[in-house]
Amino acid sequence: MLLTFILIAPAAAGLANLFWLPRRIMWLLSVLAFGATLAMGIVLLHQVLMRGVVTQWNEFFYADALSAWMVLLISVVSLASSLYAGHYFQRDLAAGAVTRGRMQEFFVLTPLFGAGMFLVVLANNLGVMWAAVEATALSSVLLVALYNRKTSLEAAWKYVMLGSVGLALALLGTVLVYAAACKNNPQGLPSFNWSQLMTMAPQFDPHLIKLAFVLALIGYGAKAGLAPMHTWLPDAHSEAPSPTSAMLSGVSLKVAIYALLRFHILTSACLGSGFSRHLLLGFGLASMFLAPPFILVQRNLKRMLAYSSLEHVGLICAGIAMNTPITIFGALLHMGYHALTKPVLFFAAGNIHQTFHSLEFRIIGPGVVKVLPVTALLMGLAAVAAMGLPPFGLFFSELTVISGGIAAGKTTVSVMVLIALIASFCGILQQLTRILPGARKRGRDNETDASPFAGTSAMALLLGTLLVFSVWLPAPLLQGIRQAAGIIGGKP
Amino acid sequence: MNPASPEIGAQLITLMAALMLVMQLLLAVQPMLFTSVRLYAIQSFLLAGIAGVVAFFDNASHVYILATLTFIGKVIFLPWLLNRQLRRIQITQEVEPLLNAPATMMVCGGLTLLGYLVARPFTSLERLGNNTLAIAITLVLTGFFLMINRRKAISQVLALLTVENGVMLAAVALTTYGMPLVVEFGIFFDVLVAVMILGILAYRIRETFSSMDTSKLNQLKG
Predict the structure, then answer these.
(1) Contacts of B214 in chain A (CB under 8 A)
(2) Contact A154 B147 (CB under 8 A)
(3) What is the SS3 string spanning chain A?
């Protein structure tokens, strides 16, 4: 029943919050729900390591090492976001930025958003997986529009429209995969389960599968924010409340990548890995090279962070596309470390926004450290991590991808990845040094006073976890990621 | 049942698929929003009809459920919901699309040709009727074009719904008897919820901008 409970816990919390509960109770419910899923995710990882796959309801739910890894990521980021949200909305309510109804909307939709993501990674049926991705898009769109400003409505509209167009294409791709299965199996209804499709994959019509993968790549790629379908991403990330930005960037993008990966694995089993791999590499590198110039010209903190996410998503795709066990392992590890790092930056941006009432660099800075010392310190550390400096894990995962690529003789790609990473490193460094250090300018008293520790507990928790896991990866986790990399690489 | 009946079924499906395309072209050129909703309802009715024909001639009882779902959801409920939203925001007409009607027709003609070209390598896969896949792809392409061409938020939602009709037509045309029911249910509820949420958003856009012209959504750049 484990897989079912992982879904039910957040869904139940979301539905319970529909009732007019006090803020603390709503907060507690969502924190408890994601805490429970985290615990269950750990149990799931152990079961997967023992048995290979865990299935339920006649294989309706299907979890292998890749799913278990994703369950852990979703739980951690959602838990941190929920923890942070309690304090965030307390301040927003006090400042009159949101009404109580809007806050309740947040606590209803966020657990449902999480439940949708769990369904994506646990569903065996590709059609159900599609429906779940659509459900995550639908539950997050009202979160993006939560503040009801002109700009947030614009962002939400762009997000839902681009997302829906992409997902319509992904649905067509899903239908084509099913058509390929039907062609192989003219009598009766073939199964639409991914695990079943994998056993039949070598006999599928290659033309259909090619077309299906291209459609899925564009569709789920739009949801994952791969360039050039990324245009909704900076808008949505900058306009959403910070806990939602953290979830969108921390896991929602990776959940879309996960959906894409299922198609990639299927296509590789049918056509050999060359076709889907090269496409993935092209889109990944395009995202990596598009991000740095946009990071450099941004004038808005959260938009800059969104472009940094684009960079990391590109790196994950490139690592997987290089298709050696080491680079895939590095890419999966990178997913995890990025999920621990990016929310910290968005939480910091949330604290800054609530204190300075703006996200524009020229209004915030310089000298954030004088007003919000703890936030600035944690943000600086997280930024150092996100840029890929040691001792943080992202350094190791990036190094793994690049060195794995070079060891496999893919020097050109590895060097390109390295150049893009250095460029974005310079971009983030340049932008953050403009706002974090330095002295406050005179005549700036637009700040709201806040205690220096306000809203920093969730950030510190995530950073602490990141540091611990940077130096010490528990053996089961390592084993799980290795197994997941094996699934993507085509070896059981 | 006499032996000729599958033939009749195929012809019926071809006819109804062609009519779906006609509805799409009408939708593309006429500006009245209430009529657009009606045209969408007719198009969905034809889709339900195709599913019904498949169910009848192939003796696939679960496709009847699909046909009923399509009928209740897309022929009755969604048009009712869209009409209600239209009355609430008191907009009846699309204002100047980017391209005028003749140019729109030209583009749609070109997209239809493209749809047939794209579908050609896969015609051997069609289990039902002729050219249903080509029409499905054309519906998807023209639907995307409509989304670009129209400015009102509600028209864009309608265009998106026709895209979804196209995908569902492809599903019926290419697969044995439509997709498994659980998938159909999933898609069905997603579409319903999507239209409700898009309606809420469109209403909020209308309230905040005092207009539903999405070309005014242009503050976020870079």
Answers:
(1) 157
(2) no
(3) CHHHHHHHHHHHHHHHCCCCCCHHHHHHHHHHHHHHHHHHHHHHHHHHHHHCCEEECCCCEEECHHHHHHHHHHHHHHHHHHHHHHHHHHHHHHHCCCCHHHHHHHHHHHHHHHHHHHHHHHECEHHHHHHHHHHHHHHHHHHHCCCCCHHHHHHHHHHHHHHHHHHHHHHHHHHHHHHHHHHHCCCCCCCCEHHHHHHHHHHCCHHHHHHHHHHHHHHHHHHHCCCCCCCHHHHHHHHCCHHHHHHHHHHHHHHHHHHHHHHHHHHHHHHCCHHHHHHHHHHHHHHHHHHHHHHHHCCEHHHHHHHHHHHHHHHHHHHHHHCCHHHHHHHHHHHHHHHHHHHHHHHHHHHHHHHHCCCEHHHHCCCHHHHCHHHHHHHHHHHHHHHCCCCCHHHHHHHHHHHHHHHCCCHHHHHHHHHHHHHHHHHHHHHHHHHCCCCCCCCCCCCCCCCCCCCCHHHHHHHHHHHHHHHCCCHHHHHHHHHHHHHHHCCC
Q: Would you state the pLDDT for residue A372?
A: 87
Contact B220 A239 (CB under 8 A): yes
Q: What pTM, to 2 d.p., does this model score?
A: 0.94
- The string over B18-55, giving b where at least 16 C-beta atoms fall within 10 Å of a residue's C-beta and e elsewhere, is ebbbebbbebbeebebeebbbbbbbbbbbbbbbbbbbb
Confirm if A267 and A173 have CB atoms less than 8 A apart: no
> Residue A456 has what pLDDT?
87
What sign results for the dihedral spanned by CA atoms A43, A48, A50, A51?
Answer: positive
From the first residue on, what is the mean pLDDT of each consecutive set of 10 residues in chain A (492 residues)? 92 92 91 96 94 88 94 96 92 88 92 96 93 94 91 92 92 90 74 86 87 93 91 93 94 95 92 88 94 92 94 94 92 95 94 89 84 90 91 92 92 94 93 85 65 84 93 92 89 47
- B93 bridge partner residues: B32
ipTM of the prediction greater than 0.85, yes or no: yes
Q: Which of A128, A168, A207 comes nearest B186 by C-beta? A: A128
Is pLDDT of B175 > 80?
no
Q: Which of B160, B174, B200 sits opposite A164 (nearest CB)?
A: B160
Tokens of A166: 């992409």
Binned at pLDDT 50, 70 and 90, residue B3 comes out as very low
Q: Is A375:A351 a contact under the CB 8 Å cutoff?
A: yes
B55-75 pLDDT tens trace:
888 777 788 888 898 999 999
Dig out the tokens for B53 from the structure: 């024909």
Min Cα separation A131/chain B (Å): 5
Min Cα–Cα distance to chain B from A208, Å: 8
User: B201 and A127: CB-CB below 8 Å?
Assistant: no
A-interface mutation test, from B139, B149, B165, B217, most A Cβ less than 10 A away: B217
Q: How far apart are CA A71 and CA A50, in angstroms?
A: 17
Q: Is B100 helix (H, G, I), strand (E, B) or coil?
A: coil
Q: In B, which residues are within 8 Å of A165 by CB distance?
A: 144, 147, 160, 163
Determine the straight-line distance between the first and last CA of chain A, rounded to whole angstroms: 25
| Spatial CA neighbour of B155 closest among B109, B104, B218 | B104
Report pLDDT for A492.
41
Inter-chain CB proximity A156 and B153 less than 8 Å:
no
CA distance B158 to chain A (A): 12
Q: What pLDDT is recorded for position A221?
A: 94
pLDDT digits (tens, 9 = 90+) for B88-133: 877 777 667 788 888 999 999 999 999 989 888 777 766 666 678 8
